[in-house]
Amino acid sequence: QVQLVESGGGLVQPGGSLRLSCAASRSISSIYRMGWYHQAPGKERELVATITNSGLTNYADSVKGRFTISRDNPKNTVYLQMNSLKPEDTAVYYCRADYLGMNYWGKGTLVTVSS
C-alpha cells in the first residue's frame, strides 16, 4: 500500500509559478510510475504528467514546455514545477502512484490561477 500527501497548492496570478510536492509513504524507487493529474470543476480528472522509476516522463500537450515533473528518491517525493500558469490550469491537483498493479491517489491540493 502507498499513502500520498500533496502540498504546495494555492492562489497565484496568471504567469506565475508554483511547485507542488507529493510525499509517499514508501520508497518511490520501488514504485513503477508516479504522476500528477488535475480535475477542474465540472470536468473529469485528466493526466498532467507522469514519471517512471527509470526517469521517463510524459506530459499532457497543454502543459508541455511549462510544467516539469521530477522525483527525489531519497526524500520519497515527486514534484511538479508549474511555470507560466494560466487561468485554465485552475484545478485540484492529485498525485498518483502505480504500484504492483494498483493505483493509489492522494487527497489533492487546490491550485487557483486568478488575478
Number of strands: 11
Strand content: over 45%
User: What characteristic shape results from the CA principal axes?
Assistant: globular
What low-confidence regions span 5 or more consecutive residues with pLDDT below 50? none
Average the pLDDT over all residues and give the rounded result: 96
Number of helices: 0
Q: What Rg, in angstroms, do the CA atoms define?
A: 13 Å
Instruction: Report the biggest beta sheet as strand number plus sense, adding barrel if it closes.
Output: 7 strands, mixed
Termini, distance in Å?
40 Å
Helix-and-strand structural type: mainly beta
- Measured as a percent range, the helix fraction is under 10%
- SSE sequence, one letter per element: EEEEEEEEEEE
Describe this structure in words.
The protein is an all-beta fold and 115 residues long. The chain is built from no helices and eleven strands. The strands form two sheets. Strands 2, 4, 5, 6, 9, 10 and 11 form a seven-stranded mixed sheet that branches. The protein has a four-stranded antiparallel sheet with strand order 1-3-8-7, with no helix packed on it. The radius of gyration is 13 Å and the shape is globular. The termini are far apart. The model has no long low-confidence stretch (mean pLDDT 96).
